[in-house]
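Hi W.,

Here's what went into the run:
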Amino acid sequence: VSEGVEETFVEAVQAAHPDYIESVGVLKPKWVSLVAKREGFSELAFSLRDEFGFIHPVSAGAIDYPKENRMRINYYLINPSSRFSLMLGVDLPRDDLTLPSMTRVWEAMSFHERETKEMFGINFEGHPNPVPLLLPPDWKGGYPLRKDFEGEGAEP
Amino acid sequence: MSDPEITPDVMRVSWGPQHPMSGQTRILIDIDGEKVHKLTADLGFTHRGIEKILENRTFLQGIIPVERMVMVDTANVGLSYVLAIEEALEVETPDRADWIRSMICELCRINSHLYAFGLQVESTGYFPAVFLWTTIDREIILDLLEELSGLVPPDLDIGLEELSIDRQTVRMRVQAKSFQAADRLGLQLAKFGPFASARIGAIEKDPKTGSKRFNVTISLKEPEAGDRG
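Here's what came out:
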């Protein structure tokens, strides 16, 4: 592997989508973090799959930042041919947690988005089957992985 | 679960739940005769909330719940957690630690593979003895890991045989490996504030096993007048 492949990739992504990208950083060799803007997130995802080869969805999840009144949703992707890993993040304000579902782009994100929805209360628009994955169907205890979650049985 | 499109011909069958211990995974199958229309996976209630548990723990305390994720291969799960923390804290490990870690992880990996092979062969229903063979081989590894992690210093190896509690007196019959254990226990109990006194009776030696037996009598302090209300 030659030096600077990450930088080449970062420049290529930034040149292709200057309007959709908030920041890009290299975490490790062959491991890039990309924070996208909320607008145009679907277009960016389609482009990452079709033009940049990130066809393998690994995982998805969220991180709660209550003091900054935001939540970061992370999609973890791999490009199997170049062995690049990508952490695709997007920030949402805590009072408007809506994001288009990425199941249209990577169908296997379905389970991960269902889990993120029930654990953090993020509404993925257009998800084909938005029912709880791990929690009981009659769960009314709020969103367990939020930082302000009080405990089992607490009212939402 | 989404409602199935049940017509007179299509029937919903629950395949599973499998594995009564670690969460009931099942698959709902909509079938028409032998033709499968749809599969719906139900993962069961496997979420243990480890993320939430770790929020209220120090990094060191977090190793224990993380290792509970895998029953037979704890070292590899624990290692990935520890490596992530070391990277975040920018801690560098010495070579010796890396070598020891590699060996422990390999032992755990072989252990886990033996378990899996054994179970798989046993699940065919034809060769249940294979699971016993792999269990015998696993025993070697478990002994090694026990030697590494479960070694109790001889002066702490104390077992309790009997315990009786009166109003203000606790009587214990204790078995220990060595005389040092008896001394140490007496010393520690004497330091403990709420006890008025802690006496250790005559130490008998078991001729068969060589272990030491003795009685411990602890009297509690009389509560002071102010404490009663």
